[in-house]
Q: What sequence folds into this?
């Protein structure tokens, strides 16, 4: 197989694994120049396999729907356990911000089954669809631009809309949890929306599965110590445990077969 084809396959595999890969990191992984990676990405973009995005590459339209479906199916059980644990800490008749992501969609499904009288503000059209069937809920969806890949609504108008409200809870996720406690994402517009939710909520809960740790996203959202509680399916490292204890952040573990094997 020609080296260029082998390189293309490795690039696609890395992007599949991480959802986003910076050009510089791909160059290091494959031991080639950034210029070579740019040429490879350009060709894969022409074939609709990848898409250029903020100095790196994400899945193109030819693969992203398949990848999203596969990822959701593979990790749905873990996310549902985390979602149920979060909902245990949400009372009836509460007001909430719900953000973007499949974990938050799982939270919405659990809320519908277990809580009544909620007031929900979301920038996630899938969450809005899930919770809108409850006649005792008030559901508000933000203004802004809809992102086709996941139904997220982002942009300056979204932030301005959120700043009009004050809720009891913000339930958020993150693309990446770094070992130093940084919470990161791939899209600065989405980050701005989540920061606005945090600023306008009395309590902030973070829901992240084990696959979100150490993914090397680029855009800083906040620190894990800015949340009141973290809900996940893995034990914290010793350094993370100390950081959380010093900040008074609670760490809740949703038990699963994988979490028990840590």
A:
């Amino acid at each position: 197989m020609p080296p260029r084809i082998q390189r293309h396959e490795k690039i696609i595999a890395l992007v599949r694994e991480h959802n986003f890969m910076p050009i510089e990191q791909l160059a290091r992984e494959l031991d080639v120049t950034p210029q070579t990676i740019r040429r490879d990405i350009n060709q894969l973009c022409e074939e609709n396999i990848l898409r250029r995005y903020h100095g790196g590459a994400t899945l193109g339209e030819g693969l992203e729907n398949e990848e999203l479906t596969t990822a959701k199916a593979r990790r749905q059980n873990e996310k549902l356990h985390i979602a149920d644990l979060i909902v245990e800490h949400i009372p009836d008749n509460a007001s909430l911000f719900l953000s973007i992501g499949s974990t938050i969609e799982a939270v919405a499904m659990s809320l519908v089954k277990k809580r009544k009288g909620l007031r929900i503000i979301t920038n996630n059209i899938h969450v809005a669809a899930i919770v809108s069937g409850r006649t005792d809920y008030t559901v508000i969806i933000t203004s802004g631009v809809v992102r086709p890949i996941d139904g997220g609504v982002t942009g300056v108008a979204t932030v301005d809309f959120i700043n009009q409200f004050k809720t009891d809870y913000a339930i958020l996720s993150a693309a990446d949890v770094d070992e130093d406690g940084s919470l990161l994402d791939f899209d600065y517009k989405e980050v701005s929306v989540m920061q606005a939710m945090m600023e306008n909520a009395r309590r902030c809960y973070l829901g992240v599965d084990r696959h979100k740790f150490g993914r090397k996203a680029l855009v800083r959202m906040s620190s894990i110590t800015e949340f009141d509680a973290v809900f996940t399916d893995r034990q914290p490292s010793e350094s993370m445990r100390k950081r959380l204890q010093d900040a008074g952040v609670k760490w809740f573990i949703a038990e699963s077969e994988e979490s028990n094997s840590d």
Residues 234 and 259 are 5 Å apart (CA to CA). Residues 61-87 form the longest helix (27 residues).
